[in-house]
Amino acid sequence: MSAAFEALIKRYDYHPVIPAERQYGQPLIVDLTPESEIWQKVSDGHDYAQEIKRQAAELQATVEVGRYAEERLIYQETDNFVGQEARTLHIGIDLGIPAGNPVYAPLEGCVLGFGNDPTQGSYGPSVVLRHELEGQVFHTLYGHLSVRSLAALSVGQEIGRGEAFAAIGSPDENGGWPPHLHFQLIRDMQGHTADYVGVVDPQYAEFYLDNCPDPNWILNMSL
């Protein structure tokens, strides 16, 4: 990891990417690793998403946080991961809040690309913003949005700091997931525009964790 890039990103003050009272309120830090105790509380009538909601209500959490650089096995039964079952390392941060909540740009930028992958287990609607700080170009990705989020967007469109440019999607439009924002920091898009892989094979962890460093450098949450 470039220490200079980390220092640059951490030097700036960013607008919250979800409503401030949720982003900076009480988080429920969710552990979805295979060893997590959450799986002991899952049954045929009570899945992991329901257990997360139960824990969030008990804690009075304002946001459910899915961790960066966490190994998970929740993707392997979805259509999006057929033939790619080795992809288990999550390289973004998930912010679980109700559908319809706004998504804000943390800093000024422009729309690099956007799209909608309806495959089960995918991002559903996603947007990538391109940013530049002191000559350093990087990107932020927003996955699991509402379909309506894409209607007013165009490639190259300028997005201001704090502008509400999208909204959280519901399960019937966001790839089939409980409502949440997948937020990812990406240095080199490697030719991609509308999306970028958010879960990778751990054997490539060194490259991907360097190219997609901790999004909390921007979120600045107490995790």
TrEMBL record:
TM segment ranges: none
Domain of life, per lineage: Bacteria
InterPro entries named among the record's database cross-references: Cell_wall_metabolism_enzyme, Dup_hybrid_motif, M23ase_b-sheet_dom
CDD domains tied to this protein: M23_peptidase
Domain M23ase beta-sheet core: 89-188
Name of the protein this chain belongs to: Peptidoglycan DD-metalloendopeptidase family protein
